Amino acid sequence: MAGPGILRLYLVSALALSSCSLSLASDQRNADRVVRLPGQPESPSVSQFSGYVTVNERHGRALFYWFFEAQTTPEEKPLLLWLNGGPGCSSIGYGAVSELGPLTVVRQGAALKFNEYAWNKEANLLFLESPVGVGFSYTNTSSDLDSLNDDFVAEDAYSFLVNWLERFPEYKNREFYISGESYAGHYVPQLAELVYERNQNKKGKSYIDLKGFIVGNPITNDYFDSRGLAEYAWSHAVVSDEVYKSIKKYCDFKNSNWSNDCSATMDIVYSQYQEIDIYNIYAPKCLLNQTSASSAVQAFFENGQDQFRRRIRMFSGYDPCYSSYAEDYFNRKDVQRALHANVSGLVPGKWRACSDPILNSYNFSVFSVLPIYSKLIKGGLRVWLYSGDADGRVPVIGSRYCVEALGLPIKTQWQPWYLDKQVAGRFVEYHGMSMVTVRGAGHLVPLNKPAESLTLINTFLRGEQLPTQR
Ligand SMILES: *[C@@H]1O[C@H](CO)[C@@H](O)[C@H](O)[C@H]1NC(C)=O
Ligand SMILES: *[C@@H]1O[C@H](CO)[C@@H](O)[C@H](O)[C@H]1NC(C)=O
Ligand SMILES: *[C@@H]1O[C@H](CO)[C@@H](O)[C@H](O)[C@H]1NC(C)=O
Ligand SMILES: *[C@@H]1O[C@H](CO)[C@@H](O)[C@H](O)[C@H]1NC(C)=O
Ligand SMILES: *[C@@H]1O[C@H](CO)[C@@H](O)[C@H](O)[C@H]1NC(C)=O
């Protein structure tokens, strides 16, 4: 009798244990619900959650997330993660409140406005401040901040996902997509690869139903992206023929260590971008005096090109001063309380849209993520790359070189796609991936072209083709 008795006991306690951890997770989930934010419009109602997920207990690392359920029938919609780049820039400061979230910040951080082109129309939308040191995400082990590189970022983001899904188990078997822009051109495929790998290793408990990824104006391959930057500056009348000739003479972008002659020539390119907005070359520049944005741009030029070329940051767009509104908003104590951010006062300093210390200490060690594209395309993931064609920082030219280099056979020729009877951009479909341009958008496509970007993401999520009829 002893055997079955022990067995029964074990089963009972296992049951008790799992229901206990389940209820802890659901308690935490309830605690993360955001009732209403300061300055949030009365209607429509927005179902949102935010808080911390521990990604490393020993070091005390926790990442901050903000989650919006889909506006209608969330139980039928996929889960979409959005990441901004930098490294060091906040996905809530850019993605959520400036680009594609349902609540965008307006009036110098005094209020939020409902965004009718929000991406949670068609998806459950998750923003993550990554890595630690960005925004409200923090670590109790300060030496972590000196070890940041692409691997570190991907591992923590993966732990975040697994733990977040424990808190929101209804999304565990949901179709999952990863999206992002700029330096997230590294983060997104790298995280996708990690999920893909871990899915092979242990089907079951931590399986994540990853279906694909989409990246915008993504840093992808340093050689093609640098060449693209130089060619774009020349072909868009930013620099002279002579400067362009020098670049061709002195710059071998295949080597990440530029020669002195190349650096001197590229300095001329950057100096021409000082007076305009490299992230949206036809937009007005933010003229606010003391935003971190303008001071950071200033710092670029003071630190010289070596710093500059690593900095893939975004400071401008339709309202060229928007990132300072986000800083005003997220530094309000009432906002932090409502968002469950910095609850125990553990996040040092001020909330910044982008963190200079993270950018400066980041270890850039990956030259190209194209091999990951090849691998995941073979693995059957849906892969899209889009590009605002007025971005001088990660220009469409470099992205075209990157996509071409994959050597995929063409399925549908380069052609226009339409919205409201206008050409919204162009696209080309390959067997394995699609590339889409958004006409007149800069680095932050959802900010500059909200309606076009909503069509783009919906089409991607449904696995359809962009509208080819006027
Ligand atoms: C960081 O340390 C504080 C104080 O000891 C603790 O309350 C908090 O839970 C720690 N954070 C993490 C993510 O472990
Ligand atoms: C980079 O190139 C410079 C000269 O152009 C050289 O002095 C330096 O050692 C090189 N650094 C690396 C890491 O290759
Ligand atoms: C603009 O910034 C400069 C340098 O920080 C400062 O001296 C000046 O007073 C500021 N002007 C205004 C109008 O805020
Ligand atoms: C978090 O709270 C502490 C204590 O109130 C404060 O010193 C710190 O500046 C806050 N951090 C952020 C990012 O607002
Ligand atoms: C940067 O990261 C690479 C790849 O992980 C590693 O080999 C290298 O040692 C790191 N460099 C520094 C200075 O930490």
Keywords:
single chain; 470 residues; alpha/beta; Rossmann fold; 12-stranded mixed beta sheet; two-stranded antiparallel sheet; 14 strands; 18% strand; disordered N terminus; binds 2-acetamido-2-deoxy-beta-D-glucopyranose
Task: Explain the layout of strands and helices.
Elements lengths: L1 H31 E2 L13 E9 L4 E8 L10 E5 L8 H9 L2 E4 L4 E4 L9 E6 L8 E2 L10 H18 L8 E6 L2 H18 L8 E7 L5 H14 L5 H10 L9 H13 L19 H12 L1 H4 L13 H9 L2 H6 L17 H6 L8 H9 L3 E7 L7 H10 L4 E10 L2 E9 L2 E6 L6 H4 L1 H13 L8
Parallel strand pairs: 4-7, 4-9, 9-10, 10-11, 11-14
Antiparallel strand pairs: 1-2, 2-3, 3-7, 3-8, 5-6, 12-13, 13-14
Helix pairs in contact: 2-10, 3-4, 4-13, 5-14, 6-7
The protein binds 2-acetamido-2-deoxy-beta-D-glucopyranose (5 copies).
One 2-acetamido-2-deoxy-beta-D-glucopyranose binds next to loops.
Summarize the structure.
InterPro entries: AB_hydrolase_fold (IPR029058), Peptidase_S10 (IPR001563), Ser_caboxypep_ser_AS (IPR018202). The chain is 40% helix and 18% strand. It has 470 residues and is of the alpha/beta class.
Describe the structure in your own words.
- The structure is a single chain.
- The protein has 470 residues and is of the alpha/beta class.
- It has a domain at 387-462: Rossmann fold, CATH 3.40.50.
- The chain is 40% helix and 18% strand.
- It has 16 helices and 14 strands.
- The strands form two sheets. Strands 1, 2, 3, 4, 7, 8, 9, 10, 11, 12, 13 and 14 form a twelve-stranded mixed β-sheet that branches.
- It starts with a helix and ends in an 8-residue tail after the last helix.
- Mean pLDDT is 88; it is low at 1-18 and 289-318.
- One 2-acetamido-2-deoxy-beta-D-glucopyranose is lined by residues 257, 259-260.
